[in-house]
């Protein structure tokens, strides 16, 4: 009896990812294009995802984020950051769980939703985030010890 080994998911070529970027208007950004994306006017949603072979929630997030953007007409700009750029840039926002959705307005940080939520909880949390005044993002929290 042969055991079929599951195929690895290639995020860049997966039909759901392609739909998100080609049909739903999510720009794929990286470390080089990140700053330019932040300079866009209006409310922006940035989806940080990890390797779907390591973190299965990635595939859920690439379905949920376009639906969220569609339901929130205020979101003007949408982007997705994939590994390895997502790991590098995530330190800016200090979220602790993956995947994460970061919200900025005119480049200024409003808040983030890290991990997955029930739809009603997600919508309520995003509604609260997008009404906030800009603030500094939380850091990743490095403990300081006395000298």
From TrEMBL:
Pfam families: HyaE (PF07449). It comes from Turicimonas muris. SUPFAM superfamilies: Thioredoxin-like (SSF52833). This is Hydrogenase expression/formation protein. InterPro entries: NiFe-hyd_mat_HyaE, Thioredoxin-like_sf. Gene3D superfamilies: Glutaredoxin. It comes from the Bacteria. Belongs to the HupG/HyaE family.
């Amino acid at each position: 009896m042969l055991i079929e080994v599951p195929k690895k998911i290639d995020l860049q070529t997966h039909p759901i990812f392609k739909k998100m970027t080609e049909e739903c208007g999510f720009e794929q950004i990286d470390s080089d294009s990140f700053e330019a994306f932040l300079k866009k006017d209006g409310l922006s949603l940035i989806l940080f995802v990890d390797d779907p072979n390591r973190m299965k929630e990635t595939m859920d997030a690439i379905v949920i984020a376009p639906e969220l953007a569609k339901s929130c007409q205020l979101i003007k700009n949408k982007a997705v950051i994939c590994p390895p750029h997502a790991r590098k840039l995530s330190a800016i926002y200090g979220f602790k769980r993956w995947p994460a959705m970061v919200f900025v307005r005119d480049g200024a940080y409003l808040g983030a939703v890290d991990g997955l939520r029930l739809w009603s909880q997600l919508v309520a949390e995003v509604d609260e985030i997008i009404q906030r005044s800009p603030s500094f993002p939380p850091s990743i929290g490095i403990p300081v010890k006395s000298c």
